[in-house]
Structures are given as C-alpha cells and as structure tokens.
Design goal:
Elements (H helix, E strand, L loop, with lengths): L1 H16 L20 H6 L1 H4 L3 E13 L3 E9 L16 E7 L12 E16 L2 E15 L15 H9 L12
Parallel strand pairs: 3-5
Antiparallel strand pairs: 1-2, 1-4, 2-3, 4-5
C-alpha cells in the first residue's frame, strides 16, 4: 500500500512540474545565434541594422498605419520558453512592426508579447516630452501570451475552507455568516 501511495505522489509531482520545462511556441522557437540586448542596440542602432533578435515584453502602445501596425513594447527579460518576465528592470523600449492590421483590442496595452524579427531601422519619437530613439523590428514570428487574472476569486464569496477556519480561530473570521 505504501508503494502505491508513493508512486501516485511521484506521478503527481512529475505532472505538476512538467509545465515548468515547456518548449517555446513554434512562432518564437527560433533563437538567433547572436541575440543582442536592447541596451547594446540602443547605444549604436546603425551597427545592428539587419541583426536578428528574439525580444519580448509588455505592450505599451498600438498604432495602426496604412499597411502595417507598430506595437511599442517595454522590453523585459525572457524565461526559457520565451515568455517575458513580469518583474524586474526594463532595458528600454522597441517597436515591433507587423504587416497588415493588428487589432488593438486583441493586442491590448499590458499584454505580454514575444517576437522574433530583424532590426530594420531606428525611429525617434517622443515619450511624453522626452525624445526617445526606438529600434524598429520587422516581425517574422510572434506570440501573444494569454492574459492572466491575478484575483483567485474575484466575484465569489470566500472558498469553503474559509468557513472552516472560523471554528479553529473563533472571533477572527466573523465577516461572513456560515452557510446553511
């Protein structure tokens, strides 16, 4: 019986950690041999024109033009599978140039995006009153990460175990009445 419980526990642990070592999505699986950092590129953009990059970060602005869409991205470091980290410092911003129309409702501000592409040019545009130089990256492949909801129970009463805690710690959990 003990071996049976141990094997079920082992299977459970392997199943739960299997998602941590996932492969990158097909569209962004190509990692360039020399993937320069955005900080290096911003120092001398002309030197890196034509270089391939795999960058990602948080969308800060979407601008649809006549035949392409420019998505301004605050760059973040990437996890192994290519997903941008949500914490830590950013080393700047870049513009991802998509061919055709990209819906701003789908590519909404705050979503995480990873792209694979080629540095095409530099664009000088203001951020507020500051003139900022952006690398313009022509996108060859991209992946828009699913939005995650931070709240566990946004519109629901507390979970069932909340009520059970009232019996263990009387007086500390009297905001909600017991259910029938």
């Amino acid at each position: 019986m003990r071996k049976f419980k141990l094997s079920i526990g082992l299977v459970f642990v392997i199943a739960m950690t299997g998602g941590c070592a996932s492969k990158p999505p097909e569209a962004i699986s190509k990692i360039p041999a020399h993937n320069p950092s955005l900080a290096d590129v911003r120092l001398d953009i002309d030197k890196y024109i034509g270089a391939e990059v795999r960058w990602g970060g948080e969308i800060s602005k979407v601008e649809n033009r006549a035949d392409q869409t420019w998505i301004e991205v605050v760059r973040r470091q990437l996890w192994g599978e290519g997903k941008p980290k949500t914490s830590g410092k950013s080393d700047g911003r870049f513009i991802a140039s998509f061919t055709g129309f990209a819906d701003p409702v789908v590519y909404e501000v705050g979503r995480l995006l990873t792209i694979v592409g080629t540095i095409e040019n530099k664009i000088e545009r203001p951020i507020g009153e500051y003139d900022y130089v952006f690398p313009l990256v022509t996108v060859e492949g991209s992946y828009l990460w699913k939005a995650t909801n931070v709240a566990l129970y946004p519109n629901y009463p507390p979970p069932w175990w909340y009520y059970d805690l009232r019996f263990q710690y009387p007086g500390s959990y009297n905001r909600y009445p017991l259910y029938p």
